[in-house]
Specification:
By secondary structure, this protein is an all-beta fold. It is built from one helix and 24 strands. The strands form six sheets. Strands 1-24-23-22 form a four-stranded antiparallel sheet, with no helix packed on it. The protein has a four-stranded antiparallel sheet with strand order 2-3-4-5, with no helix packed on it. The protein has a four-stranded antiparallel sheet with strand order 6-7-8-9, with no helix packed on it. Strand 4 and strand 5 form a beta hairpin. The chain is globular, with a radius of gyration of 17 Å. The chain starts with a strand and ends in a 7-residue tail after the last strand. The model has no long low-confidence stretch (mean pLDDT 93).
Length: 295
């Protein structure tokens, strides 16, 4: 594999990426922006959300965008033509019945316009590093339907993060960050989930993921040891690691297969876990891989 090349710097914390119609879309969370990026490095701000922290994003068939509000406990509907957003789904009432405090994380949208959204507990002990003895309470995956209705699709999740759907649309794959694994579900015809099982036990925190045409998953690992750098691995169902890219300097927080043949792996990086995050600490690099992503 070739060495990754820098395509965009001057970010803070890029996350929640998708590839659509020749562009990479992602949230630069602490810049309060949704950004588009071409393979040639052209950057544009699609939405500016002052006072809000955008996380996961998804594109609908009508060209509009769903945007998760990390602290707002809601999904926004954005119109790229106008740059304006409105509330699509507010699930604060659902989460108000549960303790501890939750934030909204990543999402993926299926071909029927249904969105799977990770809801994460944040009851860590702030006085010690996040790890096996300092993990959050169980969290949830929500299913948001095209009419804005919402229900819990899965509970007992350990910080659900990046998500992918198999080429046949029948399997949802989810990174469970602080369980150090990737988990998969069968998708029922109504979008509900069943048959939860381990896709791969990684042994390190898992974050953003992207599935290729062979059903393998590229997954970002923020760190191999808390306080250190991370990387990306390509792993097949069952846990066999097939390939790896190491950052050496940053934390790896997301990845996405894109480009004209879906063979360009975009690597989204930011400061190592536990370090401050400032403008310029985040970046996007890209490297070519052999197996293309899913169209």
């Amino acid at each position: 594999m070739k060495k990754p090349s820098l395509i965009l710097g001057d970010l803070i914390f890029p996350e929640g990426s998708i590839w659509k119609d020749g562009l990479l879309y992602f949230s630069d969370i602490f810049s309060h922006e949704i950004v588009s990026l071409s393979l040639e490095g052209k950057r544009e701000t699609v939405f500016s959300l002052e006072g809000d922290y955008p996380v996961g994003v998804g594109l609908l068939s009508n060209g509009k965008m769903l945007i998760n509000s990390m602290l707002g406990k809601k999904v926004l509907l954005g119109d790229p033509e106008t740059g304006k957003t409105s509330t699509f789904c507010d699930f604060s009432k659902i989460l108000s019945n549960y303790s501890p405090e939750y934030i909204v994380n990543d999402m993926i949208v299926n071909n029927d316009g249904q969105a799977y959204i990770g809801i994460d507990a944040v009851d860590f002990d702030e006085n010690q590093p996040i790890g096996p003895h300092n993990r959050p309470s169980f969290s949830y995956i929500l299913l948001v339907n095209p009419d804005g209705s919402v229900k819990i699709a899965s509970d007992r999740m350990t910080f659900p993060n990046g998500m992918a759907i198999s080429p046949d649309g029948k399997t949802l794959v989810v990174a469970e960050t602080f369980a150090n694994r990737i988990t998969s579900f069968d998708i029922n015809s109504d979008g509900s989930l069943k048959n939860k099982r381990v896709f791969a036990d990684i042994g390190a925190p898992t974050d953003g993921i992207s599935m290729d045409q062979e059903g393998c998953v590229w997954v970002a690992l923020p760190s191999y040891q808390f306080g250190g750098h991370g990387g990306w691995i390509r792993v097949k169902d069952g846990g066999e690691i097939l390939d790896e890219v190491v950052t050496n300097t940053h934390g790896a927080f997301d990845c996405q297969l894109g480009g004209p043949e879906r063979k360009h792996l975009f690597l989204l990086e930011a400061s190592i876990l536990g370090q401050p995050r400032d403008k310029g600490d985040g970046r996007v690099r890209v490297v070519e891989v052999e197996v293309p992503g899913i169209d």
